[in-house]
Amino acid sequence: MSNSTRPQRDPRLDQIFSDEPDTVGDACLELVPIVFDDPELEQHLIDLIQWTLDQGEGFDGGELCCALILGEIRCATSTDTLLRCLQQEDEILQRISTRSLQRIGARSFDTILERLEDPDIEGEVAALMIESLEGISLHDLPDSRDRIETQLRLDLTRPHLPNLRKEATAIALAHLGVAEATELMEQVLRRDYPGGNAFILDALEFLQENPEGLKGHAEDPIEQVVRWLEDEIVPGGDLDPALWQDSLSEVLPSSEAADDADPEATPR
Question: In angstroms, rounded to a whole number, what is the distance separating the alpha carbons of residues 21 and 23?
């Protein structure tokens, strides 16, 4: 643990830390443009999350909203903090942090690729990082996309990686439409899974039938995510291939607040 004194909370954040869950969602949405225009408040959100991580305490709705807002405004400086969130045993926090890392863009992707050079990263955390890389479809970053596809193809050929990591890699390659990965998947199945592996088999079949991958990245709009938070429902989904076909036809729009601010143009 580091500092045991909680940072003094900015009063503008009081509503997202309210004991009345019905007010949290609207307050979270209202804060998006406010935080985007206030770098000090943006850093304050990062500090609040960092403090909670350092204390080893659970995350309440307020901190979850902070993580969601940082992704919505594409706050690049929150990348390391959000990656720490992936290591927590809190599925709602993991899903929100994954969504935020997907939205941030180049800074997020570069940092994740560096971390994935370590083959000893715990399998679930690595899988969430790889899922975060799928957010490249939200951005026009050809160099980053090339690096991501190269890293994923390399990972798929490494025999001693955890199963979760290899499965997530195969799924990401399928979603991104890396057609040349079909042969790699077949090799991995023969070498590492002579009895078969449902996730990699489904990824292979999906990629064979959809060589261009998903037509777009199905991002849950922030309005939907805050409703999930109010109802304490885990946002998004996990590695469920049955959902892929639905994703093809249900590409969700980004939030109006993020569009108004246009944070993608200048990641912070």
Answer: 5
